[in-house]
Predict the 3D structure of the following.
Amino acid sequence: MENVLGLLRIRVRRGINLAVRDTVSSDPYVVISMGEQKLKTCVVKSNCNPEWNDELTLSIKDPDVPMILTVHDKDTFTVDDNMGKAEIDIKPYLECLKKGLQNLPTGTKIDRVHPNRKNCLADESCIIWNNGKIVQDMVLRLRDVECGEVEVQIEWIDLPGSRGLQS
């Protein structure tokens, strides 16, 4: 527990225009991995615009370890097909958390992260104060694939007995 900084809840909301890997569609699911941790959403059958709305929670020990989101097509008789991947950069979000902000009006934009060559953002991403918590919504453009984006939201969860973010 003393190695853990806290928990990060990742809401995997939906896929947008994902690649076709079966005859006319795909059966997509998302895997989020960070170091030795690997979590998976449910499979959505025959849908290139799936709505997962799954919540996955990772324990964060080292924010410098890359967090990778990969999309796969579930196959019954063969190895699941790759449908692209993206890196989730949590550093701008963690910097906002370290500011120790409190009691802001719901909807207050704390920071904006712009797409660039180093991140996988498809569009500007806002870090927002929402009902007493700081969240970041992101639309991630998938790499190593012809098309597709995944919409996620991240939220920090303080863990009693953990090191916490304050250095």
Remarks:
- Helices lie at 91-98.
- The two ends are 17 Å apart (CA to CA).
- The first helix runs from residue 91 to 98.
- Strands lie at 6-16, 28-34, 37-40, 51-60, 67-73, 81-88, 109-113, 125-130, 133-141, 149-157.
